[in-house]
Write a structure and sequence with these properties.
- With 532 residues, the protein is mainly alpha-helical.
- It has a domain of 86 residues.
- It contains 20 helices and 8 strands.
- Helix 14 packs antiparallel against helix 15.
- The longest helix has 26 residues.
- It starts with a helix and ends in a 9-residue tail after the last helix.
Length: 532
């Protein structure tokens, strides 16, 4: 009898507690929304969106650093005063309250938050006739790929950052310390390996889903991130050899598994047209589209078009429509191309007519960036935009030529010089096929010694000319550990007008951007070296 009373009392206590803690009729839990395949797909699709973001109280496309912070481009714009935060990025003058740096940093964490939600909730969903195991695996793979991609964008620009791997539901959880570079790369590798196991091949997606992460994109990113981390270890006295070897293995895996999925465009220019989007050479690109909406006054995510078209178009009227004149290719980049290289004039446009020199010529530089300006070669005019500031052209993040050159690079570091020469030559052969046969000879016939060091320099040259004005250069020279030497040589060769604006490149500082000051205060974060 006594035992029965105790049991009944415990049952009443448990029932009472349950009743007291049940949600009220107006309370919803996150899991309540994850009930259908459509919801899961929409949540993962939303995790792609921050890749597109370029405007929030100012513009912040990633090429602001990849091109303009490097020796490949000058800021441009109406004049030196047009875009003071970008002027600082151009001239080694960035401070911790730079607004462009802040908005880029925050956009990546928005993407991470969205990916974290998908990673947490999708595995808990019940399968049904539409939400199958295959669909769940793919969506989880996409979410892991995207989280890795956002963290890679952060770690190569800022170094270690807060490591957030779950949705933040409580104000007590949102302050996180900076993780180390090693910890962030370990997360990136784990996410990419999870994605690689479950993502489909590019050819397995229907046309409507082109642009989603693929197995090939995950393998290419495993090659790229291991290469970057190997370089970071080399520059910081760590174990570079292990990660060069891992990068080479992932490169070989890509070549085997993706042999039927990707090929180089016969015409280099096809990479930079609307018709070439998501084409045979595209491994991963940020998707944009015609959209009549604008972000002005609305903020991130209000438009699905890109500002990059209008940002990089000439301020003059010679091309039918005008733009804002940013991202002027430098004389240094122009001179890097070998005589007769067709890629130079498909990357850099040197206008012969200037209608408004005060605004079209920036510190003596008249060159225009061509690849995303949508210039019609038949008419030499800009293709009309349906929106005053937004264009539809995608932003290529990884294409096959880039993969080939990364494979060549890691092969040199693994002392496999024949492999390195093979994949360097594949890229040069495409360019050579567009010009008389005597031009663009195979390595080592164009000034580089037939040694490992000479081959390394030839590959670095090839990356600069093949990928010019595609947002790679600053990240390349920083990871190679040569940024100070490159930027000092660039400054020495520039005009007096450009030199007058540039501060010196400080080794140990300018290879990274500062953690935004607002985030330092909010998150009690340690600042990067030499930034106040």
């Amino acid at each position: 009898m006594k035992k029965t009373v105790i049991a009944l009392s415990l049952l009443a206590l448990v029932s009472c507690n349950k009743w007291l803690t049940e949600d009220g009729p107006m309370v919803n839990r996150v899991g309540d929304f994850f009930t259908t395949e459509q919801t899961a797909t929409q949540v993962v699709t939303a995790a792609y969106a921050p890749l597109m973001w370029e405007y929030q109280n100012g513009y912040f496309p990633e090429w602001y650093w990849g091109d303009i912070a490097s020796d490949d481009a000058l800021k441009g714009g109406q004049n030196v005063a047009d875009g003071p935060d970008l002027y600082d990025i151009d001239n080694n003058k960035v401070v911790a309250n730079n607004g462009i740096v802040l908005q880029f940093y925050r956009a990546q964490f928005q993407g991470i938050a969205r990916a974290n939600l998908a990673i947490e909730q999708i595995p808990e969903m019940q399968l049904d006739e539409t939400f199958t195991q295959a669909v769940r695996d793919r969506l989880e793979g996409e979410a892991h790929f995207l989280r890795a991609y956002y963290y890679f964008r952060l770690v190569r620009m800022f170094g270690g950052v807060p490591k957030v791997t779950a949705p933040v539901y409580s104000s007590a959880d949102w302050i996180k310390p900076r993780a180390t570079v090693q910890e962030i790369y370990e997360l990136i590798f784990a996410d990419l390996e999870a994605a690689e196991r479950t993502l489909p091949l590019k050819s397995e997606y229907p046309a409507a889903d082109l642009g989603r992460a693929t197995k090939g994109a995950a393998q290419a990113m495993l090659l790229k991130t291991n290469l970057y981390y190997a370089d970071w270890n080399r520059n910081h006295g760590g174990d570079a050899a292990t990660y060069y070897a891992k990068a080479k293995t992932w490169g070989q895996t890509f070549l085997t598994d993706q042999a039927a999925e990707y090929s180089l465009h016969a015409d280099y220019a096809d990479n930079f047209t609307l018709e070439g989007e998501n084409g045979c050479e595209s491994v991963f690109e940020i998707q944009y589209m015609l959209d009549g909406m604008s972000d002005y006054g609305e903020g991130n995510g209000f438009s699905r078009g890109t500002f990059s078209v209008i940002l990089t178009r000439s301020r003059g009227s010679e091309f039918g429509e005008s733009g804002w004149g940013f991202n002027h290719p430098t004389q240094s980049l122009y001179d890097e191309y070998e005589a007769g290289d067709p890629r130079r004039d498909l990357t850099i446009y040197a206008p012969t007519t200037i209608s408004n020199e005060a605004e079209e010529v920036y510190l003596g530089n008249k060159f225009l960036s061509r690849k995303r300006a949508m210039l019609d070669p038949a008419t030499n005019t800009y293709i009309h935009l349906d929106h005053a500031s937004r264009g539809p052209i995608n932003c290529q993040q990884i294409r096959l030529a880039d993969v080939y050159l990364m494979i060549a690079e890691v092969a040199v570091e693994c002392n496999d010089l024949p492999m390195a020469k093979t994949y360097l030559e594949l890229v040069r052969a495409r360019a050579r096929a567009m010009v008389p046969i005597a031009l663009l000879p195979a390595f080592p016939g164009y000034g580089y010694p037939d040694t490992a060091a000479g081959l390394r320099d030839a590959i670095r040259h090839e990356r600069r000319v093949e990928l010019g004005m595609e947002g790679h250069r600053w990240f390349d020279i920083c990871r190679w550990g040569i940024a100070k030497d490159v930027m000092n040589a660039y400054k020495a060769g520039e005009s007096a007008a450009v030199k007058a604006e540039m501060a010196d490149f400080t080794e140990g500082k300018h290879e990274l951007m500062p953690i935004p000051q607002e985030e330092v205060k909010l998150g009690q974060l340690e600042q990067n070296p030499n930034y106040s």
